[in-house]
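Support request, priority: normal
Reporter: lab tech (M.K.)
Component: structure prediction queue

Hi team, I submitted a job for Anhydro-N-acetylmuramic acid kinase from Halopseudomonas bauzanensis yesterday, and the status page still shows it as pending. I've pasted the exact input below so you can check whether something in the sequence is tripping the parser. The sequence length should be 364 residues. Please let me know if I need to resubmit or if it's stuck on your end.
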Amino acid sequence: MKHLYVGIMSGTSLDGIDIALTSFSPSAPRATLLGATCMPFPPALRHDLLALCQPGADEIHRAGVAGQQWARLAAQGVDELLQQQSVHPDQVSAIGSHGQTIRHHPESGFSVQIGAPALLAELSGIDVICDFRNRDLAAGGEGAPLVPAFHAWLLAAPQTRAVVNIGGFANLTLLDGACVSGFDSGPGNVLLDHWIHQHTGKFFDADGAWARGGQVIPELLATMLADPYFARSAPKSTGREYFHPAWLAHQLHSRQDNPADVQATLLELTARTIVDALDSCQPQAREIYICGGGVRNGALMERLQQLLAPRPVHSTAALGVDPDWMEAIAFAWLAWRCQTRQSGNLPAVTGARGERILGAIYPA
Ligand SMILES: Nc1ncnc2c1ncn2[C@@H]1O[C@H](COP(=O)(O)OP(=O)(O)OP(=O)(O)O)[C@@H](O)[C@H]1O
Ligand SMILES: CC(=O)N[C@H]1[C@@H]2OC[C@@H](O2)[C@@H](O)[C@@H]1O[C@H](C)C(=O)O
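Reply from support: The job had stalled in the queue. We restarted it manually and it finished. Here are the results:
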C-alpha cells in the first residue's frame, strides 16, 4: 500500500493551482507535507476561468477548453513537484484534484468544477480522483465546505478550537470534541481583490495596506451586513454566484465614497462576518487558527485579533500545518478517503443525509 497522495486545489481567488505532495499514516491521524508548489495562472487562463463563473455565450465550449488548459498546467506542476522530490509517479497512490469551481448552486443540487480529470490522468500517469462535491449534494448536502472533515480528522483536541480558512471565501470549522460544525461565513478576500483591482490594477491588497489607510464607512458596513446570507443558519455555502462585483455595486448604489474607505469597509465586512459566525457557534472556540491567503493580510489579522480578544488568534502554522497548503493537503486526504472507501463528508456540516464516499476515479 502506497501512502503518498497529491492534493490539488485551485480556489475561488483564481490566483493559481496549489499542489501538495502528502503522506498519510494509516494508523494515526497524521499528514506529512513532503513538498508543495503553486502554479500561477497565465493571465489569459485566469481571465477565461473568471468569465466562466458567470453565465455567458458558448460557455460549454469555453469550459471544455479552459478545463484542458487547467489540467495541462496542473500536470506540469505535478511533474515538477515529483521530480523535485525524487518521487516516481508509480509511487503515488492517487491525485485528489478539486478542479476549478465555475458554478456552485446547492439550491439547485449541483456544483461544477472543471479540470479535465481524464487528461490529467493521461498526462500524469497517476489515478485522478475528482468531483468531490456532487455526491454530498446528491445526498441533500451543500457539497461545501468539505475541509471541516479533514480539520476534524487532523486537528481535533480536548479544548474547543476553530479553524478559519480565508481564501476568496471564508469558511470555518468548530472542533468541540467529537462534535464538529462548519460553514462558509461569506466573502474572504474576493471583494477586497475585486475592488483594489478595479481601482489600482493590483490583484490583491498586499498586507491590507490600502485598507489600513481608509476609514470604515458605518452606513455602508451596516447595509452590507444586512445581506440575508449572513443571518442564514447553517448548513450554508456560497461563492462568486452570490458575492460578485454586481453585489458590491448594488451595495454602493449611487454613493461616491473614497475608494480606500470602501476597501477598509470591505475588510471590516470580512472580519465582522467571520467573528459573527464564530460567535454563532456553541460552545465558543477558545482558540482560533487561520489558514489561506488571508493570513498574509496583516490588517485583517490584526482586526480579527482585536475583535476576538482575549481569545488567541494564530496561523495554523502553530498547529504544524502551513496555512498556504491546508486546502491542497485536504484534497490529498479526500483522495485517500475515496480510494480506501471511507466517507469524506460530515453530514453535520454539509447537511447531507449521511456520510458518503466522495469522488470519481479516473484510473491512470
Ligand atoms: N501578501 C498578501 N497580502 C494580503 N492578501 C494576500 C497576500 N497574499 C495573498 N493574499 C490574499 O489571499 C488570496 C489567496 O488566498 P487562497 O489561495 O487561500 O485562496 P483560494 O484558495 O483561491 O480561495 P478559497 O479558499 O475561497 O477557495 C489572494 O487572492 C489575496 O487576496
Ligand atoms: C464551491 C466551492 O468551491 N467552495 C469553496 C470556496 O472556497 C472556500 C469556501 O468557498 C469553501 O466552501 C469551498 O472550498 C473549500 C476547499 C471546502 O470545500 O472546504
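The chain has a mean pLDDT of 97. The chain has two domains: 4-143+325-362, 147-311. Let us know if anything else looks off. Ticket resolved.
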